[in-house]
Structure formats: C-alpha cells, structure tokens
Amino acid sequence: MGPRSRKFFVTRNESCFDRRKFHTCRVSALTTLAIAARDGDRRALTRFVEDSQADVWRYCAYLTDTQSADDVTQDTYTRAIGSLHRFRGESDAKVWLLTIARRAAADHLRIRSRRAGLMRRIRENTSATSFDTTSPTPTSWELSQLVAALEPDRRDAFVLTQILGLSYDEVATICSCPIGTVRSRVARARDELATALRVAERATGT
Hints:
This protein is mainly alpha-helical. The protein has two domains: 1-134, RNA polymerase sigma factor, region 2, helix turn helix motif (Rna Polymerase Sigma Factor, Chain: A, Orthogonal Bundle); 141-206, Arc Repressor Mutant, subunit A (Orthogonal Bundle). It has eight helices and no strands.
C-alpha cells in the first residue's frame, strides 16, 4: 500500500480544474487551493487533497508505520476538511496540514499503546504459553527502518526537513518548538543514522 494507492474523499478529475492558474510554487498553490476549498470550491478541494496526499501519507508512515499510514492519512483529511472553515491562510497550508497529521498520528499511537498495554495485562493474567514472543532478525537495513528507530522528536524533525523538504522555521511551527531545537534534533538524528549505517555495514560485511 502506498501514498498514491488510495484516494481520500475525492476522485481525480483532470479536466475539472485549470492547473495553469496555479503556476507559482507548490506551497503557495496549496494555500490558494485550501482557501478556495474553504470558500466552497469542490474542485479546489479535490486538487488540495491530490496535491498534498503523497507528503501527508509519507509523513504518517514515518510517524507510525506503512500499515497504519492509510488510516492516519484518512483521519488527517477528516480533521482538515472539518477545520477548513477556520483556515485563514495566515500560515502555509502544507504546514497547517502536516500539523494536523502529526496530531492524528500521535492519537493513533496513543490508542495503539493502550491496546498493547491491555494485551500485555491479559497475557500476564493468563497461564497461556502459546504466544510467540520472538521477533525476526532484520535481514536488510533500509533507510526507512533506521529512521523509524529514531527517538520520536528527532524523527519528526528529520523527516520534515530532510525528506519532505520543509524549512526549519516551518518545522518549528509544526512541532511547537524553537528553531534551534529543530536544528539540534536534525543534527542528532543525522549522527544516529550515520552510526546505525556503519553498524549495519559491518554486520552485513559491506
């Protein structure tokens, strides 16, 4: 399942919207679309979802996992569309949307954690021995796996700046922290990834 494998809420209609009207940078175009969608333009809403969907899905996948990304992305757009009437265009629409995605992912992880805790208590209160507690040893060290292992705040900062290409200022807004904190988190994430890659290379003999 990937970021383009499912359409959220709206279907693609290439002829229903004049793309030539939005020849400025992607971020500015997305904000323009959000404002038009807020004002009731359904075609703009279609474009808003289409143009932002891939980045939202990728961000949700890094914050949770690829299996959960579809659900979290759906939740993100449910929240965003429900809040469009409050969007005033004072901040960039991409920053606004990824902030919503971050909250949706955090809620998803909280729910998953509670469920895991419940299952753990159930196991502790039973004498069953059939649960398989072993986990497979990774056979490959892809970047996505290494990023997923980062501490959550560092992973957020790294994914937003290095993978999704947001500025440090935009990430500071999304994460509600000073720019200096974002820079520090990215630097530490890079160090951790570099170390993990060296360990992986030694383990695989490459």
